[in-house]
Design goal:
With 394 residues, this protein is of the alpha/beta class. The protein is built from twelve helices and 21 strands. The strands form seven sheets. It has a five-stranded mixed β-sheet, sandwiched between helices. Strands 1-2-4-3 form a four-stranded mixed β-sheet, covered by helices on one side.
């Protein structure tokens, strides 16, 4: 556990009288009081908690959640901590400028700390580096451009935030086929990507499925499945009182309006945590409070869905190991009990099986399963028109 470890070692480090302490965290940033924050030993957004509760850090450079952060906080001891997160995909670099005064005041050295987020795109690639690896670049491009299938339609993640979508449902279908599970959980793993009709390449598989996750088959009760979904949609959708309210949880400015950066709005939370389900038919009523929205009607083949029954569930290994908190905070399964729920795991990562599936089919025509929807539908349609433009400038 990151917090427990930091509390143990910080006094030891401080005993060495360091002039500066920098934390390098593979953990995301989450504002205090966020209802979607994960608690406990599987917290993958622990930076604020440690920065506040463990005095000693001057700077923390964090990452994992793909957010861009450059801010200072005051910790529990009244000291200032600089928090930097460079986002994702090497698009930006987080830089800290440090000034240390020459004179000591006891063990305290006055420090001037400033942060900057640098856009990598403003810099030219290093010619020596590019030349040295040009051979590997050619091999890589030949690999990712290899055609594995043909698609008869366009699919995009943009539809995924407003209901059942061909993009996510393609993942659902393959997960259910591989595992023979009763229910599949999956999310749009990239915020805004598109696979066009025509040739589908190996590179497109990295758009469809970005991460090297294995595919787990786990045992969950019907009630745990519902609670899992309640948690997912709570991180994704607002409670609406009418068609004029916000549907999606976006980053807001101080006045409560969507915060627009470079002409676009951004989600408050990461869309790779926006899990939907396949194999069951259900609705999400956003006129109701969080935790009371999901109504599961039946399995998609008409069989009754029983809360007390145990079912086989397909889920990626990140989620199955507690990532995002869907199983721990949502379904209320203790983190140390998750291994007991694991029924099977694939040997290869899920992208490998998706690629093989498309190669075998040759021609695909992805369509949404339409097994779930957000209601009231008139409210959703009204909000979708507005918020689609905010997110995608379309």
């Amino acid at each position: 556990d990151m917090l427990e470890t930091a509390k143990k070692w910080m006094p030891v480090i401080m005993g060495e009288k360091p002039d500066l302490i920098i934390g390098l965290f593979h953990s995301g940033w989450d504002e205090p009081g966020n209802s979607s924050a994960v608690q406990g030993s599987h917290n993958d957004r622990a930076t604020f908690t440690i920065a506040y509760d463990v005095p000693g850090f001057d700077i923390i450079m964090c990452g994992h959640d793909h957010k861009v952060v450059n801010k200072k906080i005051v910790n529990s001891a009244g000291d200032t901590v600089l928090i930097l997160d460079g986002g994702s995909r090497s698009e930006k670099i987080a830089r800290a400028d440090i000034g240390l005064s020459a004179g000591r005041h006891g063990n305290h050295i006055p420090k001037q700390l400033t942060g900057e987020i640098i856009n990598v795109g403003n810099y030219k690639p290093d010619a020596e580096f590019v030349n040295k690896f040009s051979g590997q670049e050619v091999k890589l491009k030949n690999y990712v451009n290899r055609v594995i299938a043909r698609s008869q339609s366009n699919i995009t993640t943009r539809d995924s935030y407003f209901g059942s979508s061909a993009f996510v449902d393609m993942i659902h279908r393959i997960q259910l086929e591989i595992t023979k599970a009763d229910v599949s959980f999956a999310a749009p793993l990239s915020f805004d990507v598109k696979i066009s009709s025509g040739p589908v390449t190996v590179g497109d598989m990295f758009k469809l499925y970005r991460f090297e996750n294995q595919l787990y088959t786990m045992s969950l009760t019907g009630r745990e499945i519902k609670d899992y979904l309640e948690f997912s949609y709570a991180g994704w959708l607002h409670t609406m009182n009418g068609p004029g309210d916000l549907l999606l949880k976006l980053r807001l400015d101080q006045s409560g309006k969507p915060l627009i950066t470079n002409g676009e709005a951004w989600f408050k939370n990461q869309p790779y945590n926006f899990d939907s389900a396949a194999g069951i038919d259900y609705t999400v009523d956003i006129s109701k409070p969080e935790g009371q929205r999901v109504r599961i009607k039946s399995f998609s083949d008409g069989k009754p869905f029983i809360p007390e029954m145990k079912y086989r569930v397909a889920v990626n290994s990140y989620r199955g190991n507690g990532g995002g908190g869907h199983l721990t905070n949502g379904a209320h399964i203790a983190a140390d009990k998750l291994p007991e729920r694991l029924l099977a795991s694939t040997e290869q990562d899920l992208r490998y099986y998706i690629l093989k599936d498309l190669e075998l089919k040759g021609t695909i025509s992805p369509q949404p399963l339409n097994n779930w929807k957000i209601i009231p539908e008139k409210w959703v349609e009204s909000a979708k028109k507005r918020e689609y433009k905010l997110l995608f400038r379309k």
